[in-house]
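From the shared-data thread, chain only:
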Amino acid sequence: MELLLISATDFEIRPLLSRSTFVKAHDEQLWTYKLKHLFFDVLIPGVGMVPTAFALGQRLAMKRYDFAINAGIAGSFRDSLPPGTVVNVVEDCVSELGAEEEEKLLSIFDLGLADRDGHPYRDGKLFSHHAADDAWLGGILRDYPKVTGITSNTVHGSAGSIERIRRLMDADIESMEGAAFFFACLSRRIPSLQIRSVSNMVEERKKSHWRLDLALDNLNKALLEILRYHAGPAG
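Structure, as tokens:
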């Protein structure tokens, strides 16, 4: 299997990498690791949609992968998804892509600038693309709630902006890269999985409320389980 793992920072997946064997550095953003019998490439493009889209566009034009995984942390809009919860993001969109009109947000589809069912969109959204029954992972993904996400350039951390985004978008979590990842993988028709761990609630910014260590620990446990499933027995 040709597998690509994408994370905005190496910090978010460092525990997984420490359990894997370093094989090769291709450049400052791309490395190859090995876990048992599984070789996998690791792409660290940096934080945000722009570096993610650029780096993935370059990489996917150079090599065909069987599967791509985007791993990272997220903020949660739902009390039912507290810090430490690992989620499977199955739907995403760019929350601010469009134009403001009074209290409304007009999407690029509302403005007639794009077809909401034109590839890679489906009804104006970007969806993960993998086996519906998760058979390729032996049912591992059934342990993680399926959620909808929004991707933002500036994560929401003030009362006014949070109230507004809640009114405009019915999302479960927020990240800074997810939609760019889905767009690239869907454009190249590469099966994809976006797995995130909640580090904080989307609320007025209080870093003391974040559970970053818990989120990263749970994220990397989930990644290790996913990769081990395809790595096979040691030997």
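Residues 103 and 164 are 9 Å apart (CA to CA).
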